[in-house]
Amino acid sequence: MIAIYDSGIGGASVLMALRELAPDVDILYLADQARCPYGNRTQADIQSIALECAAWLTSQGAAPIVLACNTASAAALGALRARYPQTSFVGMVPAVKPAAQRSISGVIGIMATAATLQGELLADVTRTHAPHLKVVGQACVGLVDFVEAGDTDSVTVRAAVATHVAPLVAAGADVIVLGCTHYPFLRTAIAAAAPGVTLIDPAPAVAQQALRTAIAQGIPTAGRGRTDYYTTGDAAHVRWQIDALGLPTGIVRALVLEDHQ
Ligand code: DGL
């Protein structure tokens, strides 16, 4: 059983990509919605939250664990690997490399949370893959909340998205990285605000990496195609989100993490 973990429902962009690649694989999805959003928290806070979630996921025997959250990957991937050396983790890396390959203007826009933009991971991949390019980050405060509320293309969402995208377009970005797993759900609104700009969604590449890792470790990828959702928030809300966002159906359970420490 492959685990997918996010602060909320955004990791479902990776879930859908994985489901497409492997219709029969069993997936456990953890949405830490009681503490969502992570994006305005400190790196230390996100790290301790991610360690708590990983403790529960490893106790379920799920592997690999996909951190389908750029914010948690930036703050906690190293700490998780150090704490659980026997478990494989697949993290989100800001897609600067494919963006650099596709940019003609030499300016790449990154839409992400404030915490992701402050993390070392983005600075690292930028140094490695785009040292000669201009990388412009935009902290898109509020967008995660719209997706959590199932609002992906209303007039209000389009206005909020346009506010965040405008500085990137003005800076000359011809490629924008969707650096938060919630943002692919806003793709229509983002594309409308950035006509002619290439949008990069890393979810398919991460899903491929998760599947490769599972196969390499002999984890069965031909199960019953179950998707079991767990939320630290409201299970009824997740059932509603599954419907509103067109996610794979599955059983939804509420989870109190303290019970599992
Ligand atoms: N989906 C998370 C990410 O990729 C959302 C972060 C948040 O909870 O603010 O960064």
Keywords:
261 residues, alpha/beta, Rossmann fold, 2 domains, 6-stranded parallel sheet, 4-stranded parallel sheet, 10 strands, globular, binds D-glutamic acid
Describe the structure.
The chain is of the alpha/beta class. The chain folds into two domains: 2-92 and 204-254, 3-Layer(aba) Sandwich (Rossmann fold), CATH 3.40.50.1860; 96-201, Rossmann fold (3-Layer(aba) Sandwich). It is 45% helix and 17% strand. It is built from eleven helices and ten strands. It has helices at 12-21, 43-59, 70-83, 96-102, 114-118, 120-129, 143-148, 155-170, 187-193, 203-216, 235-245; strands at 2-6, 27-31, 65-67, 89-91, 107-112, 134-139, 175-178, 198-200, 227-231, 251-254. Strands 4-3-1-2-9-10 form a six-stranded parallel beta sheet, with helices on both faces. Strands 6-5-7-8 form a four-stranded parallel beta sheet, with helices on both faces. Strand 9, helix 11 (235-245) and strand 10 form a beta-alpha-beta unit. 48% of the residues are buried. The model has no long low-confidence stretch (mean pLDDT 96). The chain binds D-glutamic acid (DGL).
